[in-house]
Amino acid sequence: MPPIERNTRTSKIGFIPTLKTQIQEDPQIVPNVLIFCFNDTENPLNMADFEAPNVMKRTKKWSVQRTRNMKRRKRVSNQKRGWWEIWKNSLKYKGDWLQEVQGTLMLVATVIATVTFQGAIDPPGGIWQQDVWTNCSWKQGTEVHAQVGTAIMACKSLYVYIRYFMANSISFLASVSVILLIVSGFPLKNRVFGGLLTLAMCVAVACLAFAYVCGSAMVNGNQTSQSYLWVLLRVWYGIVGLVTLCCVIIPFLIWAVKTFVRIFTDSSKVSHVSTAPCRETEYVSQ
């Protein structure tokens, strides 16, 4: 290793470039350089004629000022975001709530499946106990043969009964899907499966409420009560739809878009890095 002069100011000013050149020529001198640097008791100057203690003081002041600026920018950004962002972040739960309420979801799904199954085999208004000929609302003035075991309301209120049967069936299938998702051991930490589970539970509860209103309308002959029930159902559906849209659908779509953008960006970076050596080789060959 060639001797490094450090007794003069000129050598101290040019110390770093000289050392860099020597390390590039002979990398094995790094241990000797470390010993040389740590044994130095003087305060060498850099290119701006600042000693090491002064540089440390300036660095410390700069870091403190940078921290203050970051806090000030964060405060200003929070004010610009408004109350909507603050409220959304405060409602955001950081834990794995699906795993914590897994047993409760299983119980609720089982109860909904039991209720809807019973409502399918024993509909509101009962069933015919024997074969009869009766007048149906959808065939005025014509008698229809009603078989034993069929729903009575299928003849008396066919359109309302069809709505009831469809809502009851959808609620049953959604609750059974929730049970299968929990029992089969799908990773609930995954946002895709978590979103499907939440959506299935929302569909099951919403269709159960719709089936309740249809069943009440079939067995209740008062038209005023039926109109009140339909109005309440529409209001409740509006609230549930708004909550589902803001808390489930929109966050899931945002997460999906961010995931696809990140995957596309990473793949483009990888392809760019993989093609860079080839271009350099072509340039060297030319």
Short summary:
The chain is mostly helical.
- Average pLDDT value? 71
**How many E-type strands?**
2
What fraction of residues sit in β-strands? under 5%
* Strands ordered across the widest β-sheet: 1-2
Runs with pLDDT <50, length 5+? 1-13, 38-53, 278-286
Shape: elongated
Task: Give the helix tally.
Answer: 10
Radius of gyration: 37 Å
- The amount of helix comes to over 70%
Which structural class best describes the helix and strand composition?
mainly alpha
Distance between the termini: 38 Å
The helix-strand sequence is HHHHHHEEHHHH
Describe the largest sheet: 2 strands, antiparallel
Membrane topology: Multi-pass membrane protein
Main location: membrane
Pfam families: PGG
Subcellular location: Membrane
Sum up the structure in keywords.
disordered C terminus, repeat, 286 residues, 74% helix, single chain, mainly alpha, transmembrane, two-stranded antiparallel ribbon, PGG_dom, disordered N terminus
Explain the overall architecture.
The chain is mainly alpha-helical. The chain has a domain at 97-273. 74% of the residues lie in helices and 5% in strands. A hairpin with a 2-residue loop joins strand 1 and strand 2 (139-146). The longest helix has 63 residues, at 223-285. The model is unreliable at 1-13, 38-53 and 278-286 (pLDDT under 50).
